[in-house]
């Protein structure tokens, strides 16, 4: 979901590098930790605590990974979800004519491209069988896109990659990419950091050393205090015109200027770890992953469990407590003297308030929702919510900065852009980058899917930040609504194509803006300059109480708790942190020979800036 475009020529796979997303702030190798167990539970809990009920707030991927692994350790996960569906921002919505399922297509309204360097996430994709039905994602400027059109300052540039030599990628774009990696990023030791994150030469102390030099340089300004734009001005050697070009279209792969206000640290984390490259499209739909973890017994995935019968699922255990776990909004949490939690849950379908006690709570929705919950209900309840977290953690939550994201999608009757053309002819339509309203237009074709849905569709617009906010309010008729605005612009870029004639006739359009979703209020976190300490406090919350031998059983998880929000990898890894913390809370810990994040904390913990 992240706003950072994909690199092309310099991607790790093209350079024969097996990069793993080891976050420099806490370079724990989550994928090795997950794979080492070979189907065993990640940790253990004291047998006396088997069956203890743990509330998992939110049924996104963080919540379902946490619930699945907690169940395998012998705890009793109870997942509640305020909406009507599983998945959170993994949200694949079916579009097209129901009468012809093979012409229907999955529209990914949230995360849609998954970097192979995110190996903790891919551990679960493989586990549930989704990698067997996937393909390279058609990012602009990649071979999977077949062709790309850049509409910039009134001119249209068409090119193809790894294909037709009649339409080469403009040399200007190639040079920008080379200058960015060989020039600008070397001010931040890119090659050395990437090497330290490459399998076969992974070096966690070296990662920490390189990163600390950026956070706390011997002289000069901390990287935490510098925006991406300021860093480009100082270190790129580019003119303002080149910075503007890079901001609008990047290397012909997508504009970077929505990230210009963000901390340079945010960009570096993603680039070092390869999260911006080598993306996969999951034909089964992204939300299939949390759905399968929800409803499938671990035995089907080759996983074992403690305590529970092998046929149990997260869904079955959740429904033992809530026959309908959906439309259940957690509105108040009170820590009890014995360390358990009294949780106030509202059924938003019936407006009934439900009260339950849980031994532990893992909270996975956006932390900005948690901040709003502090002030719901009776004023006298405010101190109880305040006491859930230290004041400095609440401060970090209050000032967390979120990006916006909007998508407008249309199912098509067929993938007409793949129609054969003569060698010297341009294709009818291409993946499109524009400096105008639509910004990014993506074409998806599911005809190679091994699943039921083999249709096609167009993301008429995929935008972030200020560009996404332009789609928050429809104009009244007779002015065109947002779909009309996008099709008018694209018909201008591709004269005579008449997009409206190529749409499905049944429910063809969907528009989604994460900023106006009441349970999210934004797409993903991106820190501004000076916000490193806020992120460190939120991420480190899972370690609360460990050093005092009174581990806190209220635990934050989710992608905005991670250092790489906007990527599902961060949601998965924070869920693993939470599960490892649960093991400690209930009298156990990591299995012998496979130390988890809690046991690895003091060796790898994030640097404090003070």
From TrEMBL:
Its EC number is 1.13.12.3. Signal peptide: none annotated. InterPro entries: Amino_oxidase, FAD/NAD-bd_sf, Flavin_monoamine_oxidase. It is an enzyme of class 1 (oxidoreductase). It comes from the Bacteria. Pfam families: Amino_oxidase. It comes from Pseudomonas chlororaphis. One of its GO terms (biological process) is auxin biosynthetic process. GO terms for molecular function: L-amino-acid oxidase activity; tryptophan 2-monooxygenase activity. Coiled coil: none annotated. Keywords: Auxin biosynthesis. This is Tryptophan 2-monooxygenase. The keyword Heme does not apply. Belongs to the tryptophan 2-monooxygenase family. Gene3D superfamilies: 1.10.405.40, 3.90.660.10, FAD/NAD(P)-binding domain.
């Amino acid at each position: 979901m992240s706003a950072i475009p994909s690199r092309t020529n310099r991607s790790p796979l093209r350079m024969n590098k097996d990069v793993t997303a080891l976050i420099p702030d806490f370079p724990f190798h989550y994928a090795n930790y997950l794979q080492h167990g070979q189907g065993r539970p990640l940790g253990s809990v004291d047998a006396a605590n088997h069956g203890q009920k743990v509330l998992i707030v939110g049924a996104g991927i963080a919540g379902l990974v946490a619930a699945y692994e907690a169940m395998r350790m012998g705890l009793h996960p109870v997942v509640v979800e305020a909406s009507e569906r599983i998945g959170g921002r993994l949200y694949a919505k079916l579009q097209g004519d129901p009468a012809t399922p093979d012409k229907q297509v999955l529209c990914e309204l949230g995360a849609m491209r998954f970097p192979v360097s995110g190996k903790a996430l891919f551990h679960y994709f493989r586990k549930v069988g989704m990698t067997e039905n996937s393909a390279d994602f058609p990012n602009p400027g990649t071979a999977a896109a077949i062709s790309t059109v850049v509409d910039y300052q009134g001119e249209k540039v068409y090119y193809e990659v790894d294909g037709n030599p009649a339409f080469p990628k403009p040399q200007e774009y190639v040079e920008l990419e080379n200058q960015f990696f060989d020039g600008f990023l070397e001010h931040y030791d890119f090659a050395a950091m990437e090497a330290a994150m490459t399998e076969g030469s992974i070096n966690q102390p070296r990662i920490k050393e390189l990163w600390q030099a950026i956070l706390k340089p011997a002289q000069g300004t901390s990287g935490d205090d510098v925006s991406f734009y300021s860093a480009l001005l100082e270190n790129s050697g580019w003119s303002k015109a080149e910075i503007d070009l890079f901001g609008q279209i990047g290397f012909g792969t997508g504009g970077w200027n929505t990230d210009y206000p963000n901390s340079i640290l945010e960009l570096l984390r993603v680039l070092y770890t390869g999260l911006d490259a080598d993306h996969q499209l999951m034909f089964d739909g992204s939300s299939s992953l949390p759905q399968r973890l929800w409803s499938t017994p671990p035995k089907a995935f080759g996983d074992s469990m403690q305590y529970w019968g092998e046929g149990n699922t997260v869904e079955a255990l959740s429904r033992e407590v809530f026959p309908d776990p959906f439309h259940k909004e957690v509105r108040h949490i009170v820590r009890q003297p014995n360390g358990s939690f009294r949780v106030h849950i509202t059924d938003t379908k019936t407006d009934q308030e439900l009260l339950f006690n849980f031994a532990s709570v893992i909270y996975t929705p956006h932390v900005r929702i948690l901040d709003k919950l502090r002030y719901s209900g009776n004023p006298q309840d405010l101190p109880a919510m305040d006491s859930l977290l230290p004041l400095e953690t609440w401060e970090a939550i209050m000032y967390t900065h979120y990006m916006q994201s909007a998508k407008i999608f249309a199912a098509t009757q067929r993938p007409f852009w793949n129609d054969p053309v003569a060698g010297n002819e341009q294709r009818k339509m291409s993946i499109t980058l524009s400096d105008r309203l639509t910004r990014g237009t993506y074409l998806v074709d599911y005809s190679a899917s091994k699943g039921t849905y083999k249709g096609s569709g167009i993301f008429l617009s995929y935008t972030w930040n200020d560009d996404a906010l332009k789609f928050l309010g429809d104009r009244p008729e007779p002015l065109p609504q947002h779909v009309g605005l996008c099709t008018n612009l694209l018909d201008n870029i591709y004269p005579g194509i008449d997009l409206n004639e190529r749409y499905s006739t049944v429910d063809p359009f969907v528009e989604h803006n994460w900023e106006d979703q009441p349970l999210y209020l934004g797409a993903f976190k991106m820190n501004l300059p000076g916000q490193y300490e806020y992120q460190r406090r939120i991420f480190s919350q899972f370690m609360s109480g460990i050093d005092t031998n009174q581990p806190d059983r209220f635990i934050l998880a989710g992608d905005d708790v991670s250092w790489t929000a906007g990527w599902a990898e961060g949601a998965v890894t924070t869920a693993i942190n939470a599960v490892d913390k649960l093991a400690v809370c209930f009298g156990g810990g990591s299995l012998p020979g496979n130390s988890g994040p809690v046991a690895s904390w003091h060796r790898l913990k994030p640097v404090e800036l003070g």
